[in-house]
Amino acid sequence: MKELLYIDRFEQAEALFKPQRVEVLRQLAQPRSCTEIGAALDQTPQRVYYHVKKLLAAELVTQVSERKVRGIHEGIYQASAQSYWLSPRLVGTIGVRKARDELSLGYLLNLLEDVQSDLVELDQRADELPTLGISGEIHLPAGNRQEFLDDLRGTLQDLFRRHGGATGDRFRLAVACYPKEHDHE
């Protein structure tokens, strides 16, 4: 099972956009038969098989083995990946995205799409890659926002200067900073 499957064909997206198929797909995190899935979802094996066939045709599920039960060959299926990402290019950008500068939402959306594309390429090339993910939350009074953004930009520019040589392994660093709604406790 792959870690990530990037859905960039309409046929794949269409096969995925049925709530019952998503439930079947979730059941296929581990190899299972249509009979086993049907019992878990309170559906007939035939109904489950109908959805599994659609998922198979879209390459979202694979048949991993087969067994004989009471003289009938029963397929064992598994999801093709642990995560399924829809390509933003399925629809594409409608109109011109306003990416005026690094502080605009359009710039951030373009950056996220680039990072998503890069991750898909990485997933197809190697099993284990030297990656780093960091996430955190900062609480800023309104008057300190610009100072924080200036500090962040300066720190990153210094990092790029110190480690941005022309030789060695090439890495991409993408930093996103955006307001977050307060959690209701």
Fold and architecture overview:
The protein is α+β, with helices and mostly antiparallel strands and 185 residues long. It folds into two domains: 2-84, Winged helix-like DNA-binding domain superfamily/Winged helix DNA-binding domain (Arc Repressor Mutant, subunit A, Orthogonal Bundle), CATH 1.10.10; 93-163, no CATH class. It contains six helices and five strands. The chain has helices at 10-16, 19-27, 34-41, 45-57, 105-125, 145-163; strands at 2-7, 32-33, 61-69, 72-79, 81-86. A three-stranded antiparallel sheet has the order 2-4-3. Helix 2 crosses helix 4 and helix 3 crosses helix 4 (45-57). The longest helix is centred in the middle third of the chain and has 21 residues, at 105-125. InterPro entries: ArsR-like_HTH, WH-like_DNA-bd_sf, WH_DNA-bd_sf. This is Helix-turn-helix protein. Pfam families: HTH_20.
